[in-house]
Specification:
- With about 280 residues, the protein is α+β, with helices and mostly antiparallel strands.
- The chain has a single domain, classed as Double-stranded beta-helix (4-Layer Sandwich), CATH 3.60.130.10.
- Helix content is about 20%, strand content about 25%.
- The chain has an 8-stranded mixed beta sheet with strand order 1-2-3-17-9-19-4-7, covered by helices on one side. Strands 8-18-10-16 form a 4-stranded antiparallel beta sheet. The protein has a 3-stranded antiparallel beta sheet with strand order 12-11-15.
- Bound molecules: fe (ii) ion.
- The site of fe (ii) ion (FE2) has 4 residues, from loops.
Length: about 280
């Protein structure tokens, strides 16, 4: 049976059925998943049971992998497979087995503080809490296209710095100092408006809000522009919500969506394994 793709009842997102990702997929299925990822930006594949090597093998069908960003503890969470990041609130023997805890993770794209950020992320849910911990995605093509002209003009040609010092749960990464003046934020600089190479479509490219700064502007003007763009881009009309079940695999277009996560009950367990596909272009 070949992969079947159906759009979710949301502005973005597609569900793929008829695949078992633990087995090598026919190239036609890989192409169908990639096409859905390119056009619908988020791909949901339910009811998968993947070992770490199987998750890696599936991920590598879409390109080379990027290792996880630096975590607050200074060593990989998954020592046997360091390309896999662990997202979890579980603490074993006094040590977290993964990153990001149980709190809210505010809107962001992954690792945009790098010059060439990963183009895709793949997240496999092993254990999920009975409620909470939902993940939301916002379509940055749609957000750009709906921008008021004045904001479009204000963003055009502008470059912003994407802070490397904190992870998406707001924790300071090992080896970084607190940012006290956003003009000195350490991280990659990217244009606020990105043009998709394959399609020529434009998208907002915001990355992360804390410690962001639009270069060449006063801090007040930069804050005002970023606040306006973020408020616009994260409106519900551009978003979808994913309610996790154990066994879910999600793959998202990291250059074309923002995502955020709800908090969940710290007394419950949430364990996810994640890979990311290396980008092959500077943002332009
Ligand atoms: Fe993230």
């Amino acid at each position: 049976m070949a992969a079947m793709i159906s759009n979710l009842d949301a502005p973005l997102g597609a569900e793929v059925t008829g695949v078992d990702l633990s087995k090598p997929l026919p190239q036609g299925d890989v192409d169908a998943i990639e096409a859905a990822w390119r056009t619908r930006l988020v791909v949901v594949i339910r009811a998968q049971t993947l070992s770490d090597p199987e998750l890696l093998a599936f991920s590598r069908r879409f390109g080379e992998l990027d290792p996880p960003g630096p975590n607050p503890y200074g060593e990989p969470f998954n020592k046997a497979y360091p390309e896999i990041n662990v997202i979890s609130n579980v603490v074993e023997n006094g040590r977290p087995i993964g990153g990001l805890g149980d709190g809210e993770a505010v809107w962001h794209a992954d690792m945009t503080y790098m010059e060439v950020p990963p183009k895709a992320a793949i997240l496999h849910a092993l254990e999920v809490p009975p409620e909470g911990g939902n993940t939301y995605f916002a379509d940055m093509f749609a957000a750009y296209e709906a921008l008021p002209e004045a904001l479009k003009d204000a963003a055009e040609g502008r470059v912003a710095v994407h802070d490397a010092s904190r992870n998406s749960a707001g924790m300071l990464r090992r080896g970084y100092r607190e940012v006290t003046d956003v003009r000195e934020t350490v991280g990659a600089r990217h244009p606020l408006v990105r043009t998709d190479r394959a399609t020529g479509r434009k998208a907002l490219f915001l990355g992360r809000r804390p410690n962001g700064y639009v270069t060449g502007m006063s801090i007040a003007d930069s804050e005002a522009l970023l606040d306006a763009l973020w408020a616009h881009a994260t409106q519900t009309r551009f978003t979808m919500c994913h309610r996790w079940r154990a066994g879910d695999v999600l793959m998202w277009n990291n250059l074309a969506v923002l995502h955020r996560r709800d908090a969940f009950d710290p007394e419950t367990r949430r364990v996810m394994h994640r890979t990311q596909i290396r980008g092959n272009e500077r943002i332009a």
